[in-house]
Amino acid sequence: MGRRVVITGFGTINSLSADVEDFWRKVCEGQSGVGVIQSFDTTEYKVKFGGEVRDFIAEKYIDAHEAKRLDRFAAFALAAAEIAVRDSGIDFSKEDLTNCGVVVGSGIGGLHEIEEQHTRLLEKGPSRISPFMIPKLMVNAASGQISIRFGLRGPNSAVATACASSSNAIGDAYKIIQRGVADVMVSGGSEAALTPMGLSGFIALRALSTRNEDPQGASRPFDKDRDGFVLSEGAGVMVLEEIDHARRRGAKIYGEIVGYGMSADGSHITAPDPEGNGAAKAMANALADAGLNPSDVGYINAHGTSTPLGDVAETKAMKKVYGEAIRHIPVSSTKSQVGHLLGASGAVELIVTTLAVQRGVLPPTINYRTPDPDCDLDYIPNSAREVRTRRAMSNSFGFGGHNTSLIVASVNGL
Fold first, then answer.
1. Residue 159: phi, psi to the nearest 5?
2. Tens digits of per-residue pLDDT, 348-374?
3. CA separation for the pair 274, 67 (Å, rounded)
4. What gap in Å lies between CA 141 and CA 161, rounded to an integer?
5. Is the pTM of this model over 0.85?
6. For residue 36, what are the contacts with CB-CB under 8 A and spacing of at least 6?
7. Apex CA 238: angle with CA 237 and CA 240, to 5°?
8. % helix, strand, coil for the chain, step of 5
9. Alpha-carbon distance 255 to 257, whole Å?
10. Rounded-to-integer distance, Cα 291 and Cα 73, Å
11. Which CATH number does 5-248 carry?
12. What is the CATH T-level fold of the domain 262-409, as seen in this structure?
């Protein structure tokens, strides 16, 4: 199985909070971070709401001079990394930095910078394009900036698998440590696509909820009246360590990553496999990687986007993999509260999944009001539930047919 990998630090920037404990409390209370978009005029848009990160001040986490050279998505990532590293208590000045690396994902990258520079190109001409445009918009800007900030010289890569990006990033970082290539990895994902172009694109795809009269009730995974996902922004980053390395320095340990599975639908660029076969394969692969039986899992944090097709496909997939055991496994979707952070969603949801195992509280699926006959599992409707479980799964599925599942356990969970 290779070396054991534990989680020692969390950081997140999202529409509910930029503090992990406050975020966890609000999730358990069933609060929503979704609201009317304030950063740009939505008068001509069919959708006027999202999971917006408000009052974000990059300079609180990043040197003011450097902050000007970052797109919003990279600033989110660097801020979340600062929080996670601080939370972990690791002192990189005492580490062999060639054994410390970064894997951070993003589905879209620097969309703010693309829009700003395109406007400048049209209005002022090519000579006025910023020399920082390319290093700001590239998807690997987040991983590169985190590596530079902490001087990490081990493995460094960026993952772009749409909404599975950060789950793939964390899974890749887990395997890097498991194989002995590194001892410490900073990993997660970031996204800042809640822009005029980003919102317009997802509206054109007809992927979003149009419930403008009730933004906080718009994301309703597995509910019969769901009508699309809520576009959100933010980041989730965690510090992963080889278990003996963490113990030697006296680190607190949130949980252990024990399984990672991937697959592809191979069927459509945006729609899921209607029978959930690809998603099922990713879940089965994660269970096999962990050496677990379906009945060994006590909670599933679903991808659960609140789309008509996606939620049915995921429900079918869970039934295929877990069989009769799924009738006794609670399932919930964090997207009901923070919306869909695209490439950052998996990392934020894995934070929630890990805390659910550590704290013995399963977060709810809020806005669940009308049962759907095609989605007939226990979705922990509307209220958190105190349940002790030793292991949990987190699912992330992305455009392009990318499917990823991760399994976390209490440190003594196996």
1. -115, 135
2. 999 999 999 999 999 999 999 999 999
3. 43
4. 16
5. yes
6. 42, 48, 49, 215
7. 145
8. 40, 20, 40
9. 7
10. 36
11. 3.40.47.10
12. Peroxisomal Thiolase; Chain A, domain 1 (3.40.47)
